[in-house]
Structures are given as C-alpha cells and as structure tokens.
Amino acid sequence: MAETLHTKILIIGSGAAGYTAAIYAARANMNPVIVAGMLPGGQLTITTEVENFPGFADAVQGPWLMEQMRLQAEKVGTKIIYEMIERVDFSKRPFTSYGDFGSVFTADSVIIATGAQAKWLGVKGEQEFQGFGVSACATCDGFFFKNQHVAVVGGGNTAVEEALYLTHHASKVTLIHRRDHLRAEKIMQDRLFKNPKVSVIWDSAVEEVCGGGEPKHLTHLRLKNLKTNAISELPVDGLFVAIGHKPATDIFKGILPMDETGYLLHHPDSTKTDIAGVFTAGDVSDPVYRQAVTAAGMGCMAALDAERFLAA
C-alpha cells in the first residue's frame, strides 16, 4: 500500500539548494521532507575538486561536500526520502506530489530545487574524462588550467562567455563550432575575435575525447570537419562543453511559468512562483550563474520565504 506523508515544507531535489533550504526550514521547526530525486546531491556529486565554495582553504571533493550538507540537514531534523517525483498537483492546498515508488506527499508549501544538467556531446571518452579534463563550467574549473591549452565547444553566448573567461587562466583557448558562424551576440563575437589568446575551428565537431596516463588526464581531441569529413587531432589539456543546460522542469510544464528554455520563473527579489506557497531555488530557475554557492543562497531564501508564507 502506497505511503502518504504530510509535511509543512516539501523540498523536491537534493543539491546545494535543496539541502540548504532543508537546513533553514528544519531549524525553524518546519520538519521539512526532501525527496532526493534521480541524483541525490545534485551536480556536485559528479565533480571532483571544488575550490570556490566558501569556508574551505583547501579544495574539497564535490561528493564529500554534498554528503556533509546531507548530514547537516538530517542532523537538524530533515527527513530524506530516496524517490523521484513523477507528478504534482498544485491546484489546491495541501499540494500533492507523487513519487515513482508509489509514495504520495502532501505539503502546505513546496520548494522546487530539481536543478539543471549540462547538455553533453555524447561522444566517446567524454564521460570517462569528466573531472579529468572535461568540464561544463569554466567558472568552476577554469582555475585548474592555468597556462594550459583548452578547447570550448559551442557557438552561442554561453560558449563565447566561457571562452573569454578561460583566457584569464589558459595560455590558449580554441573554440570549436560545427557551423561557419557563431550564434552569440555581435558585441561578444567582437570581443572574442579581438582576443589574441583565442582561435576558432569552424565547421567541425568533436568525434572523440582522448587521454590516458596515471593519474588519468585528457591529452587530445579527435575532430571531424563536417564539410570535408577530414579527421584531425587537437592537443589540449582541457575541454569545456558549452552547448547549453536543461533544467529538470518537465513535470511542471503547464503548471508553473517557465522561460523559453524551460527554466522556472520567479518573482523579482523573491523565490515565489505564480502559485502561492510554491517556491523555487537553485539552478532550476537560474540560467545565469549556476554555482553551488548561489544555489545554496537561493535555498536559504526559499526556506525563509516558505516560512513567512506559512506564518501568514
């Protein structure tokens, strides 16, 4: 028989945003419940070293950091359920969410912290070298490639921004794009083309990510020219995939407002959505910053907003 569980605050998702929301809600005696989702701990559980989260003089491992957040959330009174929400009904309170194992969760308020995932190329070697030279976040990992040669794949604003950011660390940045022109804004393209550290390989796609050694590291990329089918090799120390992110918002389509790419919309200077009592935090509603520390900050805000909503 399916379990039905009621809580004052249901948190859907368990990354930096979800855990931080839970810590604040639990300390306010809200007895929150987290439904952890497909990837408990979020994106940081598939990263290696984290150097930019405040409070640690030395780099820490992403999985360890998320484990500490989980333990902290549980210690102050959070209940964590290891299911994934498949369907929600926000048409009336209490709000109802349905888990993939048959559990039913009712809640007086909901915080959505389901996050977003980078879109990957899906080529051979890409997954193997994630964290060993392959990344989807220049601001997270660019520091590790000081005075090295890195490549960026993509042609939109994100790719150009990543490439320009990486010029502050890398000795050379090669942008690889499958077309003969970029989609990025003209002013950003101008900045890119004027930067002496940047070169562009047009009409090409990454066919394979290659490397080896001990410890394991990326050494080169196999590229295919899409016009001539010619195969070439590009020696690089790092690869940054910048072809976009996909927020985990499919179950909220038609229920909550989103932008054209699927990110949840929230009110200015607030985590409130258009449904009173439903809040959003972290990468699921942040197409701009996408950092663990900003996600944690939004988790704090969402918990405070939910607490005030329930008090009112």
Lay out the secondary structure.
Layout: E1 4-12, H1 16-27, E2 33-35, E3 49-50, E4 60-61, H2 62-75, E5 79-81, E6 85-89, E7 95-99, E8 104-112, E9 116-118, E10 134-135, H3 138-141, E11 149-153, H4 157-166, E12 172-176, H5 186-194, E13 198-201, E14 204-212, E15 217-225, E16 231-235, E17 238-241, E18 245-247, E19 278-280, H6 292-311
What does this molecule look like?
The structure is a single chain. By secondary structure, the protein is an alpha/beta fold. 22% of the residues lie in helices and 29% in strands. It contains 6 helices and 19 strands. The strands form 5 sheets. Strands 1, 2, 5, 6, 7, 8 and 19 form a 7-stranded mixed sheet that branches. The protein has a 5-stranded parallel sheet with strand order 10-17-11-12-13. It has a 3-stranded antiparallel sheet with strand order 14-15-16, with no helix packed on it. The longest helix is centred in the last third of the chain and has 20 residues.
